[in-house]
Amino acid sequence: MSIEKIVQDTYRLMEGCISSLECAHRIVSQECDQELVDKLETDGESDAVYYSKKLADLRKRLSAEVIRRKTGEEAGREIENFVNIMSNVEENKKFVDYIVYNTHRTLNQSLIGLFVEVMKEEAKQYDTQRYDARNEAAVKFCKRILPIIEETYFPLI
């Protein structure tokens, strides 16, 4: 596999499949070093230096992405903090637009599936009376649509 192909594939992984970042990091770390040595021996120093710098930058970005991933609880807190600003219509619109128009389609479907799981759990609060005026509308809404969302399957494609 050529260095150029590895770099292109790794960038594609970064753009669409966050869960594949560790895999991409391994590809860059393991596959490229030997090819850089070979390139240095055959093509001369300038190409090897160019790719070495490009891969070093890519490794840095990949490392930052792998480190930055959050647990489910941390991600939940981030979303909670995001919505904790009352009537932030402009930022809510940006969030919705990003999810709908900029998220990779597979990840978009997974995200909607996650939202549906939240709604299923919220619907359970109706039966246990674990709600008050602050979330009553949300609980009752989720309870009403529960029959529809229980029948829906979101495959990972």
Helix and strand topology:
Blueprint: H1 3-16, H2 21-43, H3 45-68, H4 72-83, H5 89-102, H6 105-128, H7 136-150
Helix pairs in contact: 1-2, 1-3, 2-3, 6-7
Quick structural gist:
This protein is mainly α. The protein has 7 helices and no strands.
Helical run tally: 7
3D shape? elongated
Report the average pLDDT across residues. 78
SSE pattern: HHHHHHH
First and last CA, distance: 26 Å
Largest sheet: none
Residue stretches low in confidence (pLDDT < 50, at least 5 long) are none
Write a structural description.
The structure is a single chain. With 157 residues, the chain is mainly α. It folds into two domains: 3-68, no CATH class; 72-150, no CATH class. Helix content is 80%, strand content 0%. The chain has seven helices and no strands. Helix 1 packs antiparallel against helix 2, helix 2 (21-43) packs antiparallel against helix 3 and helix 6 (105-128) crosses helix 7 (136-150). The chain starts with a helix and ends in a 7-residue tail after the last helix.
